[in-house]
TrEMBL record, chains A, B, C, D:
Gene3D superfamilies: Ribonucleoside hydrolase-like. Pfam families: IU_nuc_hydro. It comes from Kryptolebias marmoratus (Mangrove killifish). This is Inosine-uridine preferring nucleoside hydrolase-like. Belongs to the IUNH family. Residues 5-310 form the Inosine/uridine-preferring nucleoside hydrolase domain. GO terms for molecular function: hydrolase activity, hydrolyzing N-glycosyl compounds.
Length: 318, 318, 318, 318
């Protein structure tokens, strides 16, 4: 049986890479893609997502419009890194129009899909967690109907990439991240910022990967060019831990959802999100000492099979 | 020329070890020991410090009474780990009396000593930083008169040992830690909790060390027994990162002050202390991205020469 | 034309009083009652609301189930004051069953009703603001479709009734209160805790009122007895400012919505909610100095026509 | 017997007025004036204080230098209102030099003076509370040696004059205000910002007062001119509650200390200072519900004898 997935994205270059891996995985069935504000304003996220599906010839996959703002409404975009349009600033004059979007909204769609396939759906979230936070508020039983949740977001060692101690996806909506880590008691796997830094691929692989010949490869090369340049800049290097290299953040969460053997080493620990700190607002907090007395624990990804990752990336652009 | 030092302590078993290493270092001259609340109430700290000096035959070293409370006065002791009396609960009926203490108070004494030896004095702080915080308030020029400051305290990866994200010395007086990291612009070296965990010595060394024959060794064995048992407990292991072993926290700061070659690898970064978080109050914050625009940076200790450490520990109890 | 209203309640004795005033006002048409957690768990709120409608012979009014938890899910009930069941602990064996509830959920119902009657609907909120917060997240244009919003909640002078500085409805879901004050840019009127204390009616009126003869009066007397006793207790008096008396909090918001001449004096000021304070979390903040640069201002109720209030209360139980 | 006083000031026009009232009170003996950063940088405070003493022919009174920075060192001056030099920007070319200052520092001087006259000294604090906070840290028994403490500072109804909810003296050093309200358990009287607004004198009195003929009156008129103009401005009016008028803030605290019958109505309540709020940091918190379980309560001034105030002001410039 195929793995049923919902992808919750803020498409972005790495979200695009994640979507393309999912599309190229023979054992994965994408039941829907829900869009959220994040890397770029929601309008761009919707367009970018449709562009990715078009390149892959999969505009049949339903795309849902989610929230354009975080719960407390101080929006923060990461447009700088992924380009002004969130996808490398290489516009497609023939991009599909938003009339292709579903009528139903993202949070409600998630709930309906999970209800239709109880305990079968894997939710992969690679943007701010606003859609998920509202979904559990609308239906507190939603998390229990999921098979698993994979998140790219948060940090494990107080090494921020957006604020001093905060990772972008969590900082972009700290309250939603808090709600999700508090109320999603399904099996949960987290690819943190520091983990993704430590799991980067060498630039040499990346160069070889992007030089392949195919329509998808050409698209990938085009949308990736800008962020690749930025990733090699001195300022970006300050955000990074453990050397540099090609860090396709969101892909780690998706890859773990696709292949149960992708995660080599993980850690089980209760987590929450700091909401009040001056420098730590939005920081993921790991409760190793079990002081918070939380029953639910998540799996923090520690090491993964990078060879599998390479294969997935290569398949994604074939 | 000998290195002139002031030790600011909350004696504690590991403070005792640090003091004994300093006393046994031929190139170190201790100009004074200033006492602070911390591991145990100030009265015990004073007594414990005098007991250590007595065992080492150095009651000539001036000991100063510092603050019994943190700035905001919510005292927190760590009596559990170091014993009720802070020194393993093995009382000495002939312990020296507090009449041996200096009349001058700790903060004022620090200032006077540094003034008498401008840019020659190394301050080693192995307890909460209350004395240092008030000293710089009393004399803003005090830090500039120091040669260097070595601190045991804070955490670098949000791994707390006292609160979810907070290390004891900083959590015991977060405002003082904040003030010190803000206003001590002399060269500053920090031995963090996570660093000390990663730099632990094997228990086998510890056993061999404590089995040596000398009056000092017997004293060390006696005061260390309780905390050693606790260190091997399951609950304590939750606080620890990177395996277990013998972690003489305070000793790392002192050893770095004694021997300029002790630190093998260090990192220079601006730091501050989170004062407002729910789970992160008292956590040290490292500003790798330079978002705080602080001019002063500190040296975070990364790796040290453990063979040197062993030798220092052995010499300390000869 | 009748005033179209949605009542968002956490029924509660004073919510019950407010509902009964609305029902007895000839110029008011209630389009729906949406229920929220608050004074008592949501299940009780639903039951209590139906009981009130039954006593008034108005079970035709649609009642909608809203959220059982605040956004960040640390539920806080005020069961003590309004009785364990939220309505004076005088159960009705023939209470109507929850099968009478609408299928649609509260937040979605609000949105639909307002859409059907653009700029005609007055929303009166007398419980925690969770339903309203999620509604604006689901449909950012919802507030602009309202004619006006009347809120009972918040405090104007840092005089809490639940925490040191916090009023119950706001403290029960501070994030929702923040969202509503931030995003509801329709004309907004607030009956604060301190205002309600200063506008209390004499006990003598209350005694006379409750001694009237009618089925509704008997019901009112029964459900009010417990909270009246509590209101006269020493502990409750500590919460109160400006003398004692009968303070039907929620009724002030409803009365202002019913009769445009009820408010005699009001103040226009930008407001927000403190989310981070140790003692002030959930406190309403009034920005008299315009430091927050908020465009939208609300009307803070200052004095009202108490004779009108008495008449409304009397009519409500006829 | 004369009342022995220490005045802790950040001179400021209203501090100057307070000092001059104290000097003109036959039953008051000023044992010392301690200076603190605040309205204007410490250097100006020192100079301004000496200028006031010179005009009054009382340069015999010892003046002590206190702290130039708040505990956490984010200095905030109110130079705008009191003029760039803190005293109306009317410099005196023959101002006395700082060589007249005492050698001893403010905090230590306070402690020494109180020790010399146990339970006889009244401390009147009309600036940020840094000197007092450090004094109690240096000598925890200091507050018990005082007869009473009078403070101008804090707010009682969340009406800020500096931040949204914060009054200048408290906001200028919130941690010090917290420490003082926590650890000064002597009888304590507080003249809050809102109280002072409600107790303002009519401008007509002020005009008449300043038109008197004397050297002191001329000095007063000169230094008061600038702040009087500002006080009548639209922007300042936003800070004020309860009408306008001449509000000599600091004078209320001093007058209460001078004349035991000055306070007509007061309220006894436990208080603290909010340290963590986004909009409420530095706000005084009144614990009417006794949720904080503090033993020590302070007296909040409610109404005072304004005729006495007028007489004091008139005598001060004779
Ligand atoms: Ca993403
Ligand atoms: Ca220590
Ligand atoms: Ca209510
Ligand atoms: Ca002043």
């Amino acid at each position: 049986m195929k793995k049923k997935m919902i992808l919750d994205v803020d498409t972005g270059v790495d979200d695009a890479q994640a979507i393309m891996i999912a599309l190229s995985s023979p054992h994965v069935e994408i039941l829907g893609i829900t869009c959220c504000h994040g890397n770029t304003p929601l309008e761009n996220v919707l367009k970018n997502t449709l562009r990715v599906l078009k390149v892959c010839g999969r505009l049949d996959i339903p795309v849902y419009k989610g929230f354009s703002k975080p719960l407390l409404s101080n929006k923060r975009n990461a447009g700088d890194y992924h380009g002004k349009d969130g996808l490398g600033d290489v516009p497609d004059p023939d991009a599909p129009g938003v009339e292709l979007l579903q009528k139903k909204k993202a949070a409600q769609a998630m709930i309906k899909i999970a209800k239709a396939h109880p305990e079968e759906v894997i939710l992969v979230a690679t943007g701010p967690l606003t859609n998920l936070a509202v979904a559990v508020q609308l239906d507190p039983s939603f998390p229990n109907k999921l098979k698993a949740l994979y998140i790219m977001g948060g940090n494990t060692n107080s090494r921020g990439n957006t604020t001093v101690c905060g990772e972008f996806n969590f900082v972009a909506d700290p309250e939603s991240a808090y709600i999700v880590l508090d109320r999603y008691t399904c099996p949960t796997y987290i690819a943190s910022w520091e983990f993704s830094c430590r799991s980067s691929l060498p630039w040499s692989f990346c160069d070889e990967w992007l030089s392949r010949k195919s329509e998808k490869a050409a698209f990938m090369k085009k949308i990736t060019a800008l962020s690749m340049t930025k990733a090699k800049s001195a300022d970006y290097q300050k955000e990074v831990i453990a050397g540099g290299g090609f860090n396709p953040c969101d892909v780690f969460a998706l890859a773990a959802a696709v292949d149960d053997d992708f995660i080599v080493e993980k850690e089980e620990v209760a987590v929450t999100v700091e909401l009040n700190g001056t420098n730590t607002r939005g920081m993921m907090v790991l409760d190793y000492m079990e002081l918070l007395k939380k029953e639910h624990k998540v799996f923090i990804m520690k090491t993964v099979d990078l060879e599998k990752l390479k294969k997935m990336l290569i398949n994604a652009i074939k």
